Amino acid sequence: MFKFFKRVKTVVDSELNALLDKAEDPVKMLDQFMRDMESDIREAEAAVAKQIANEKMLQKKYEEAQKMVEKREEQALKAVEAGNDDLARRALEDKKLHTQTAETLKESYERAKLDSEAVRKKLDEMKAEYYQMKLKKDSLKARAESAKAKTKMNRTLSGIGSDESKRGFERMEEKVLQFEAEAETSEDLRSSNKSLDDEFESLEKNDVDDELAALKRKLGKE
């Protein structure tokens, strides 16, 4: 369990660049690493709790055996005081058995206590590493997001200046120039047609004046 936790930490430290080079999303991978670490910590906490429970059980059994040793000692003393050597002897024999049991339980308890301290210390180290990696993950995620944003922006900007974009822009510019030329030509034609009509109108007006003058001459008005 602890070994796997260290493997995950090594992956985050040593293989991040390899992940970035692949098609994998580093942000998602970092989140997955953190979930794996959290799972390892929960397993370690369960193991520590189990070890502590075992330590307390052995401690309780050792203390009970020790109390029986003390109890049989007192009983043997009372039996001797009462002049009952046989009862005193039986109490001392049972005391001997409880003494052996107590010594065995004491060794087991002390060993379990050391084991509990060791796994507790290991769990504390795991949690410290986890929080360090969490800070590092947050920093790496921010860097990854920033890099992705820069990449997207650079691609957008490079697209603006691409040959295809330039050609498209030039085509639109040519169309605008063409529209402007057509509009100018249309205006010239309209002006030309207007001048021609004005000339004919003037000509027609002159003919009427001539006819009017002729009529006046007939009537002797002039």
From TrEMBL:
Q: Where is the composition biased (Basic and acidic residues)?
A: 163-177, 187-203
- Residue ranges of region Disordered? 146-203
The record ties this protein, via Pfam families, to: PspA_IM30
Report keywords, A-Z: Coiled coil
Query: Any coiled-coil ranges, and where?
Result: 34-75, 102-143
| Keyword Transit peptide set for record | no
Is the keyword Coiled coil assigned to this protein?
Answer: yes
Q: Which PANTHER family match?
A: MEMBRANE-ASSOCIATED PROTEIN VIPP1, CHLOROPLASTIC, PHAGE SHOCK PROTEIN A
Similarity annotation: Belongs to the PspA/Vipp/IM30 family.
Record's protein name: Phage shock protein A
